[in-house]
Structures are given as C-alpha cells and as structure tokens.
Write a structure and sequence with these properties.
Layout lengths: L13 H15 L3 E7 L9 E3 L10 E7 L7 E6 L3 E6 L4 E7 L7 H14 L5 E6 L4 H9 L12 E2 L13 E2 L2 E5 L4 E8 L3 E3 L2 E3 L6 E7 L4
Parallel strand pairs: 6-7
Antiparallel strand pairs: 1-3, 2-3, 4-5, 5-6, 7-10, 8-9, 11-14, 12-13
Amino acid sequence: MLQGSAEAPVLWEQDNTEEAFRRQILDTGPDIVLLQELPGIVPFVETHDMVKENPRSHSGHLATLVSHKLMDSSIEHSAIRGCGLLTTFGNLGLTIANVHLYPGSGEGNARRDQLSAVVAGCPNDIVAIIGDTNTRASEVKLIRDSGLLAPPPPKPTWDSFKNRFHLGAPRFRANFTRCFTHPEIKVVDLEVIDTPIVVEEKAFYISDHFALRGTLIIPKR
C-alpha cells in the first residue's frame, strides 16, 4: 500500500517510497513489473507504461508495467475478479498473470479456486503466474502435480526477522511471492531483492515483501 516502514526515517512519506521504487526499476531495467497491494495509485516510471487495467484484490490494487520497447498493439489485458490481471503479448504467444491470492494458512482451497480461474481466463496455454500467491509448501506440490513448474525462490520472499516493516508483527519466513509457469517456459536467474536502502544512516525496506526477479525464456512461435 506504499506505506513507510516502521524503521524508515520519521519524515519518510509516500512520495519517497514511490521515488525509491522508480529508482530501483531504472537501475534493474526489467521488461515487465508486477505490483500488488497498491492504494489505487501506481508509481510512475518513465521507461514503462501501465497496462490499462487496475483491478482490486482482497487488499489493494494490482498493476502491471511494461517497458516501452515491449509495449505494442498486440497486447491485450483482462481482470480476474478479486485476484488477477492478465496481460497477453500476442506477438510472443505469452500471457503474464499478475496475481494476489487469498492470505491465511486455512485458505488453500480458495487459492486453488483462484488459480483455476486465472488459468481458465488465459487466452493461450503459455502462461506465467507471478505475484503474491500466499501459497504454502503443500499447495506448491499440488500445483506441480497439475503440470505447472514452480521454481523455488533462492531465499525467502518474506522475512520479518530481517525486514521489520511492521513493528510488533509475528516473526517468520515464507515464500509467498512465487512464479508458476507452463512447462515450456524456462525460468532462469531467479533472485530475491533483499538489499535495504539506506537513508540518513537508517537501513530499511520499501515493502514488507521482497521483490522476486528473474528471466523467462519462452518458446519461439
């Protein structure tokens, strides 16, 4: 929701978070950026355009940014009620599903239904489902059994021992942010961006989740 960390400087505000996000995108140069839990606004990055859809999940909005070099007239988009934003690149034969699934350890069936709705809504078979999936290890096994690939993040994408974003919150580690892909997609160079920013000698993070970054190698069409 673009809130400031409890460990940020006292005068840290939303526009500071937006600028820190913008700087990270300019420094890392991704083709596609998937955002969840936004407060109805999307940080501006001059190298990217926003897909013209901004649906709500159970908590905040989703947004997908696409680099200028990748954005063209073949791109289509659609929302999956309450959980997803599909962006289809017609010239690549690829759909990227930006998702934010139900939270909670007892909501596995609800997350399964949401994933089923995402897959059913894709206009083609070559799909990468990426975002805050809130999935547990037992659910990931079922997803793999269904035929999708689920490469494990190399580090936790949630670590409240390291990232004290909300003071007083429970301390635990998890891999909530994940990617699930069609078996013809190869995921390489998967990394978790868990280096804090430093302002006024304070080290802190601009989100309670760590960003997951990687490269998708897709089949030629």
